[in-house]
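2024-03-11 09:14:02 INFO worker-7 job=invfold-0412 stage=load source=structure_tokens
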């Protein structure tokens, strides 16, 4: 009888331990926030067909995913990116030009396909329009 009681007690202990493990919550996973097309928190969020411009030098902050040009950045999203484009990601398949004036006036530079990174400061605080070129 002692042996049977000991076996039952071991089985009950094992079952209780298994239930405790099964009921324990899984470790929390860090979820990255999703980023809409104009504002977001993901670094370098950009679609494979797009030319993307970002408010900060590390591919974060307000951003736009562009398939076609923007005649006047001052007229989009409250103008937050007008004269405030500090990084770019070009995975559009073509070159893009940055201009210091709305209407594609006064070309600052050409961003080749495949370029990802910060813009030089003397350009970053002047961009007012962009388009493929």
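2024-03-11 09:14:09 INFO worker-7 stage=emit residues=133
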């Amino acid at each position: 009888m002692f042996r049977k009681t000991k076996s039952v007690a071991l089985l009950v202990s094992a079952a209780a331990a298994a239930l405790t493990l099964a009921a324990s919550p899984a470790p929390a996973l860090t979820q990255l926030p999703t980023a809409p097309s104009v504002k977001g928190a993901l670094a370098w969020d950009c679609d494979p067909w797009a030319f993307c411009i970002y408010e900060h030098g590390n591919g974060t902050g307000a951003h736009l995913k562009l398939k076609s040009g923007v005649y006047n950045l001052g007229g989009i999203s409250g103008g937050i990116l007008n004269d405030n484009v500090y990084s770019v990601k070009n995975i559009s398949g073509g070159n893009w030009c940055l201009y210091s004036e709305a209407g594609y006036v006064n070309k600052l530079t050409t961003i080749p396909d495949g370029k990802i990174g910060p813009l030089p400061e003397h350009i970053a605080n002047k961009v007012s329009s962009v388009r493929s070129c």
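2024-03-11 09:14:09 INFO worker-7 stage=report msg="The two ends are 89 Å apart (CA to CA)."
2024-03-11 09:14:10 INFO worker-7 job finished
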